[in-house]
Amino acid sequence: MAKQTGDSYDGSQIQVLEGLEPVRKRPGMYIGSTGYDGVHHLIKEIADNSIDEAIAGFATRVDITILEDGGITISDDGRGIPVDTHAKTGLSTLETVLTVLHAGGKFGGGGYKVSSGLHGVGSSVVNALSNKLVAEVVQKGQLHRIEFARGASLAPLKKIGKTDRPTGTTITFYPDDSIFKETVTFDYKWVVNYIRHQAYLTKGIRTSVVDKRTGERQSFYFEGGIQSYVKHLNIGKEVMSDAPFYVERQVDDSMVEIAVQYNDSYVETVKPFANNVLTPDGGTHLIGFRSALTRVINEYARKASLLKEKEENLSGDDIREGLTAIILVKLPDPQFEGQTKNKLGNPEVRRYVEQVMNEYFAYYLDENPDVAKKIVGKALLAARARKAARAARDNVLRKNALDGMGLPGKLWDCSSKSPSDSEIYIVEGNSAAGSAKEGRDSKTQAILPLRGKVLNTERARLDKMFANKEIVAMIQAFGVGIGDAFDINGLRYHKIVIMTDADVDGSHIATLLLTFFFRYMREVVEGGYVYLANPPLYSINKGQKKQYVYDEPALEKALAEIVTERKERGVAINPSEDMAKQAGVTISRFKGLGEMDADQLWETTMNPENRILTQLRIQDAEQADAVFTKLMGEEVSLRKAFIQTRAKDADLEELDI
Question: How far apart are CA 386 and CA 136, in angstroms?
């Protein structure tokens, strides 16, 4: 490559951003995104400071109010951000915290022994990204107030006067719509979920959310803390003990708090937290927990002669089947990996958690032999099922090798070998699959027909799944494997489209398939690779012309537009006739995909230029888990209650996964 010359390059081209300018210039570096997630991250940055006050023992409540004018108020009864003059900035400490990056009480100055904030930039970042921010602090019964616009103070801190509240901090802010162009509207459900989790993790704190726009409100108080959280996660499942195992112990300068309760499901639900921050990628606290859990249960099984001398130890996967656990560690200097804090890196924490679990969970098993035998018994069944599943999988692989193919015989594959260009339609019924095969774009679209309703994988282990031809066909077709052989990098199609009839049976089949994806191929959903096709319900026919509509409201709107257009052309309309006659059209209702010929199916549901696909993502894993447990689990009463409360507005898209 030839070296370029001629352009001047000097200090004038180096941009220096002062104050909060870097935040406004590159907001994604500080809050991750400027979409929905970023807007709601602002709430977390402010509310986490209030939660830190509660963790430190200085606050008893945190209240959030969504305002009618688009703002949000977060208030606590903690010590109140200091209002005295800061020695380094010459400003009030409150203004310093809200305008200077890396200014706060979380850098070893003694303000907090434990906090969720690592970098201490939260309050100033929220201020920088808000059209307006108002901070009110009560110290010694005196109210102080300061207002900002896009990070700049409009006037110095002002003492307003006396108030009944002795101490506390209240922050009201309005996200800047020039930064958050996608939305600046707060989601009440998100706020409720966030503050409920914080109430679980900080036992004894009272929290509330009020939505002034709708009048909705909820309050939370959990005396049991993470014990209550575990019980909440196990709603709808049969548990092996009435009360969770619980321990809270100080180790050196850190606190370890753990709650464990087993249930009858085949999945593991473990949530690790560090200083109230969820670490979804785990870290040293999770490693320590898993190591100790496996060791303690194997030692108990040997001691109680539940494992024979020649039998191999139970694996961690076997032991964690049906496990629900919360691991909460509180430490003075958490080392998270990255600003998003997805993983805890403190090496000493592994030792702390192992020490607590080794001692106290061993006591628990010795003192609760009935529960211990149930846990070991479930793990032994899981081990046998795992071995059977491995044998079944190996048998499937051997059969494919002998047959000379690695894909299911009934798959009509596409010719493209590029996953990003390839999509697979999962179609129920031979008739619909035949039309889809004939009408598809064979270069990029594969068709996998399924017969009838697939296995309900909510109630099945892997060994049973490998005995089901439809499940095996999907595993083979997708290319990612399953269980300990799962690898998302093997995915052969970047669009997996569930295409079922627009009726109750079709919705049931779609839900069965979604259960399979959520329980056994969650990364495929999390990656945004799963879609629902939306076939039309009606065609409006006038001569040779057809217009397809996808639901009742769309049908009414289309007919009204046709009638209006006819009136404008001077056509006489009889208002006593039904809308179809007024519009001069006939209406056909599709009972299922099998009624469509290849051209119709392509035109309405498979043509990328016309089709409507709903992409599925996991917005709230806890809520999704609860919904699948209710809809697909053993407990009939929960399913009945779910259906009764949602019968009027039932819609597959409203499952919120």
Answer: 58
